[in-house]
Amino acid sequence: MPIATTLPSSSIVLRYPTTSTSTPEVIQEESYQLLELPAEILKAVEKSSEPFPLTIKGRPNDDAVLCTPSTTFLLRTVTISNSLLILRPPPPRPATATRTDPTLEIRDTCHQVLECVPQAASLERIRTVLRESAWEGTGTLGKRKRGDKEPRRYTREMLGSVIQGSEVELERGLKERNVIPYRGRMMLLPLNHLHPLLSLVLALLTIHHTTIALNESPPTAVSPSRPLQEALDQDHEIDPEITRGVMGLFGEMDSDGEVWTCRPAEMVREIGKGLLGAVKSSGMGLDKLLNDWKEAVGETWSDLVNVNLLEGDHLLVDPPPAVTSQPRLIVPFPLYQLPLNPATRFADLFLTRPKWRPDDMIPFLKGLYRDGDSKERDKLVAKFVRVVKEGQGAWWYPRRSV
């Protein structure tokens, strides 16, 4: 790395490295890239008492990103009009040599800098790389047919090396996609297999001395963990390690591992998403789905069923005005199947519907900007959306450039 030095107030001499017969040395060409740190990273580096980790991530075909412990930035090359010289003091000279002016050597000339642009972590790759080794349901582990190719299994560290996101974002992404540790590797629990297991868990919670507080925000339930694990193992062939992983996704254990405090609303949501995933593309009556959902979670938890829990996974379709007897339909429309490129995402959304209510579209913009960054979201909307105020309120139409 270049050595920082204080420049004198008087003139200095700049020269390229040279060699002479009296001071032979091997001169190696040096090349540098300059990274311009945004204010939020610079402040974190200055405040940290320990070395502040900055990690560049990306496969060969990816755009490189820079990750702090909690945020992700796209690295973008920017050409600058003024050249920047990388300078360092020259090597020491013999004691007999004299130098009248301060001298610095030019080690490289830079015409570009790397700029950090805030962006959301690219977490959907989690589902892509873990799909092949995903859980196949109860009683299936260890029963792969002879001759079947063993799928590649990823450790937590391996995932961290291929997912372009910070550790905090990666941990959140694993939980959102129902990924648990299993036998030293990370395993995806697909909703079509997970939601029947969660229905069993909710049923067992009602009979194992559970303290239920549905009026809290969020609702909680406290239960002894051992009876749940034994019932799922002995009666339903659920590996105890998978049960513990599921308990970690939807709650926390006490220090002794004997008491589980869970979040039933999150389990109810995943059951609803599992049922919705089985609905055909033509849709299902909303009332029927809600009834099936309540039946799947059981009477104790039925008050938690709410279509708003499926935000970002469905569309609601009203019947034609002339056919009032037709029920309102719910259609599967999962966010994770939408493109990651903003222009393509907006184009797909407007192909699905020619106009949108703002509150209906916003859930499908997740992943295009950092969670909670409303300013960046508004910039995207201004770029791709034309707002039209009509009698029933504001509607979003596509801009011609989309």
Fold blueprint:
Elements: E1 13-15, E2 34-36, H1 39-47, E3 55-57, E4 65-67, E5 72-88, E6 103-118, H2 125-130, H3 156-162, H4 167-176, E7 179-182, E8 185-188, H5 191-205, E9 211-213, E10 220-224, H6 225-236, H7 240-249, E11 251-253, E12 259-262, H8 264-277, E13 284-285, H9 286-297, E14 314-317, E15 329-332, H10 342-352, H11 358-361, H12 374-384, E16 385-390, E17 393-398
Parallel strand pairs: 1-6, 2-6
Antiparallel strand pairs: 3-4, 4-5, 5-6, 7-8, 9-10, 10-12, 11-12, 13-15, 14-15, 16-17
Helix pairs in contact: 5-8, 8-9
How would you characterize the overall build of this protein?
InterPro entries: Dcc1. This is Sister chromatid cohesion protein Dcc1. One of its GO terms (biological process) is DNA replication. It holds the Pfam family Dcc1. Keywords: DNA replication. The strands form five sheets. Strands 1, 2, 3, 4, 5 and 6 form a six-stranded mixed β-sheet that branches. The chain has helices at 39-47, 125-130, 156-162, 167-176, 191-205, 225-236, 240-249, 264-277, 286-297, 342-352, 358-361, 374-384, and strands at residues 13-15, 34-36, 55-57, 65-67, 72-88, 103-118, 179-182, 185-188, 211-213, 220-224, 251-253, 259-262, 284-285, 314-317, 329-332, 385-390, 393-398. The chain is built from twelve helices and 17 strands. The radius of gyration is 29 Å and the shape is globular. The chain has 402 residues and is α+β, with helices and mostly antiparallel strands. The chain folds into four domains: 13-118, no CATH class; 120-137 and 154-189, no CATH class; 197-330, no CATH class; 338-402, Arc Repressor Mutant, subunit A. It starts with 12 loop residues before the first strand and ends with a strand. A hairpin with a 7-residue loop joins β3 (55-57) and β4.
